[in-house]
Input
Amino acid sequence: MFLHLGGDVIVPKKEIVAILDIRSKASAITKEFLEIAGDEGFIINISTSGKEKTYVITNNEIYLSPISCTTLKKRALSQVSSED
Output
């Protein structure tokens, strides 16, 4: 299945490594990780500037999404229950 991250971006759920709240970048290790990923061009902003709510880390990219972690989780879980 796939997960809609916002805008026109949909990723396969099996490629998602983590979904982090934007406020989690306050952690030193997370901040360092995101700085390195940004420097290397792995971060893709699919949100309007200032409206970012979530980092979605996949196997290949990191997306800045305008959709909250809670909403993304609900979307992912509702797809699982509808598949059964």
